[in-house]
Amino acid sequence: MVKNIFLMALCLWSAQVFSQDTWSLQQCIDYAMDNNIQIKQSELDLESADVDLFGSKMRSLPDLNANASYTASKGRSVDPFTNTIVDQEIQSQNGGVNTSIPVFNGFQIRYSIKRDEQSVVASNYDLQATKNDVILNVVTFYTNILFNKELLETARLRLETTQSQENQTDRQVELGALPIANLLQIRQQLANDELEVIRAENNLELSLLQLKQALQIPADVKFSIETPELPDPETNALVENSTQIYMYALQNQPVIKAAMARTESANYAVGVAKSNYYPSLNIVGGLSTSYSSVAAEQLGPEFSYFDQLDFNQRQYIGLQLNIPIFNRFQVRNNVQQAIILKKRTNYQLTDTKNQLQQTIEQAYLDVKSAAKAYSALENSLEAAQLSFENAEQRLQLGATNAVEYTQIKNDFEGVKSDLIRAKYDYIFKLKVLDFYQGKPLNF
């Protein structure tokens, strides 16, 4: 019954979540933030780091432990109450509590807390970095859908144009103004345009599926995205140079901050390892008592169970000093390993900085190249459109054949498709650069 109720609730929740078929970019990002597995795993890493830090802090507190034992014996044995040898059945009990308070342990607790605090900082930045990667991934798939939607729209318009041209050519052939070869060529182009529409539809479906999979939404769920009005991008959008962007990212990117925190954590880990070279001092104390079944027989009935527990009480308090002298070089090896880890984290930090710089330099160059390609295709489109319009007029007047017209039309449509591709390529690469500048990734 409970299971059925749970399944019904899950179904209702799913219906509510996906009832809104058209999603904005922000809605996709928000959904990914709540459901992405990599983000949840990073959150667990942060929780684990918090637990480790809590454990390190609690090591400075006293410990308290209780112990109890029960023994039944027959034959000759030592009475635990009188310490005399008896030859009979004895039932005895022992119990107590003890505590230990750390006074000095070579600053091990202090270094452990500092180390684990930096681990928590690193895990926090790792979580932010994971979220940034997920956001960038969602933006990539979202942009790809917008690109394929515009390509599909262009393919459909191209098909409508060819259908209109086919009708016009058919009438001219019937009137004898154009040869039948022109109509056959137009029909062949019509078939090609129909195939391009099918390909564009398939590409759009594939890009939608990729976004669904990135969001972990079932493939059969009805899903579409909003199509924002994207103005033609400015080809002179770059203001800062790659060095300025890198310097900003160096101070703000979570991957750098996480690597720096791990370096600090490794520094404190060396202190933790070295603390074992020093003596440790603890305050110890305890309380214990015991009971023997033969005590009443030997010493009188006044030594009952609770009387014995009261009579046999023993309290102690003292100092416990531990001085390391020789430990088979274990401390030395641990210190060396900690130093190696420290060097490794320094190298990792340097490598992370280098990778970030190289990524930004490449992204900056990609934006410049995409801007040039987009600007060149804008100019090329104007020329291709004029050539197409001229060929269309010449075809109507019978001054050119359908083969030449089709070639010019295909060239024109190819430039249009290339311009759309260049537009979205440029927009996306600008968004990547915005990401490293800390700007919001939205349209």
Automatic annotation (TrEMBL):
Gene3D superfamilies noted in UniProt: Outer membrane efflux proteins (OEP) (1.20.1600.10)
Location, primary (coarse class): membrane
Keywords, sorted A to Z: Cell outer membrane, Membrane, Signal, Transmembrane, Transmembrane beta strand, Transport
Compartments reported by the entry: Cell outer membrane
Secretion signal span: 1-19
Cross-referenced Pfam families: OEP
Keyword field contains DNA-binding: no
InterPro entries: OMP_efflux, TolC-like
Protein family: Belongs to the outer membrane factor (OMF) (TC 1.B.17) family.
Protein name as annotated: Transporter
Species of provenance: Marivirga lumbricoides
